[in-house]
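Technical note accompanying the year-one report. For the benefit of new consortium partners, we illustrate the data format agreed upon in the data management plan: each record pairs a sequence with a structure-token string. No post-processing was applied to the example shown here.
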Amino acid sequence: MPQSDTERQELAAILRERSLRRGDFVLASGARSDYYIDARTTTMSGRGQLLIGRLGLAALDEMGWRPDTIGGLTLGADPVAYAIAHAAAAAGRTLDAFTVRKQPKQHGSGQRIEGTFRPGMKVVVCEDTITTGGSALNAVGAVEEAGGTVIGVFAVVDREEGGRGAIEGRGYSVISLFTARELLGR
């Protein structure tokens, strides 16, 4: 079995163990669900970051995406972007990361985007989990308003609840490492 298949299976196991919860939950969208995926408990773990970085970088390569920088709306996107940027550096490649604030800073330079972003850069917007697509589209809007070019959206998990369609409906390709159905075994 290729290393990437083994790593993908390991990451799925970590997501199921650390991030998947069953019960009665109200999502950020207001919808009710019988499961919740708190991907941060995986994306902020050392092993999770290692695997997300490697698998995420491979997924970008498979799509032919060659961004200058990767990032998204804080907090969910931050560890994902940092993991992929780190994996690129470990492979001898240049790929930096950025963070989009939910609101512009009220002091200093008043920036909404922090990190390595500059106007004219090619960007991949990332997410830990896509549900409605709202957070990714919020980040896309901030990047484009600041002069960046979004070449696609990457997620660790797609809940398959319309987010992919909303993002693709705006003209952006979406890739995810996993779907909720895969993690739930449905």
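Partners are asked to follow this layout when depositing records. The radius of gyration is 16 Å.
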